[in-house]
Amino acid sequence: MPLPKWLDEPLDKIYAAFLDRPVKRLRFYVSEIESPRLPQEFDGMRVMHLSDLHAKDYGPGYRRLTSACRRHKPDIIVFTGDIFSRNESIQRIMTRVPMMRELVRLAPVYYIPGNHEGDAPEKAEILYKTLSGVGVKVLRNDHTRLTRGGEHINIYGLELPPACYRAAGGSFRDLRKLSVGELDGLLGRPESDAFNLLLAHSPIQFPQYADWGADLTMSGHVHGGIIRILGIGLLSPERRFFPKYTKGIYRRRSGRGEAVLEVSAGLGKFRINNPESVPICILRRQRK
Questions:
Q1: Residue 188 has what pLDDT?
Q2: For residues 5 and 279, what is the distance between their CA atoms, to the nearest angstrom?
Q3: In CA terms, which of 219, 227, 241, 279 is 20 to 30 Å from 267?
């Protein structure tokens, strides 16, 4: 049973004072993202980005993580996949549900699958149904409209085909790259005059996302490059050295103007000189 809301603040203070040491490396990063298509009603909206939790433990009910998130006052929360690791038991996977329920109490939550969900589809299907039941908006090649004051933005959730992560036989060579037409087939055509936020687990196909019509894409998957030296990520999950998109903000020109990619270094997995991180994007209306 969820705790009453009036207990949130005192419990957060107790966790911050005495129990946060195991996650003291967790970092929150704030970036401002401008777009001329962002409606004025959404200027200043805080989008909190969680990704790649895998098997990382943040205490009972993941309270250490949810308490830290609450202090940053998100307007919406997006979770871009790999909420569990493929080899975890369904009993262990379901321990994420109280965490997600608690996050829904903070702000609307939008979740997409990653490659680990795709590698364990039976377990993932059970989780999707349960998350939907606690109020999480699960987007699997689907989209939703977020409205404020008569204005709206679109949130698209991409579920990439397995061949985008591994080729036949388990190889990481010759991975499938989606065309703009294939993205149309999965997501539909984006609304041309609206601000389109795309949630896509892997950032590798950012050029195609931009050409498809995403104003802002939020991704994870690369774990910040696993090992970071002088701000450079060294390795990707595809066993490639020096992946192009590892952490932070990237920009690219498209037919719609400037497209932005924000990549989270994620919350779990082995890493060196690469703190677990929670990016926050503050959306700003760009003056024409």
A1: 96
A2: 25
A3: 241
For the domain spanning 30-285, the CATH number is 3.60.21
Question: What b-and-e string marks burial along 102-141, b requiring 16 or more CB atoms within 10 Å of the CB?
Answer: bbbebbbbbbbbbbbbbbbeebbeebbebbeebebbbbeb
**Distance of alpha carbon 219 from alpha carbon 232, whole angstroms:** 17
- In the chain, domain spans: 30-285
DSSP for 249-280? EEEEEETTEEEEEEE---S-S--BS---EEEE
Q: Which segments in the chain show pLDDT lower than 70?
A: 1-24, 288
Checking phi first, is residue 190 left (phi over 0); if not, alpha (psi -120 to 50) or beta? beta
Residue 95: how many CA atoms within 13 Å on its side-chain side? 17
State whether residue 161 is helix, strand or coil: coil
3 state SS of 164: helix
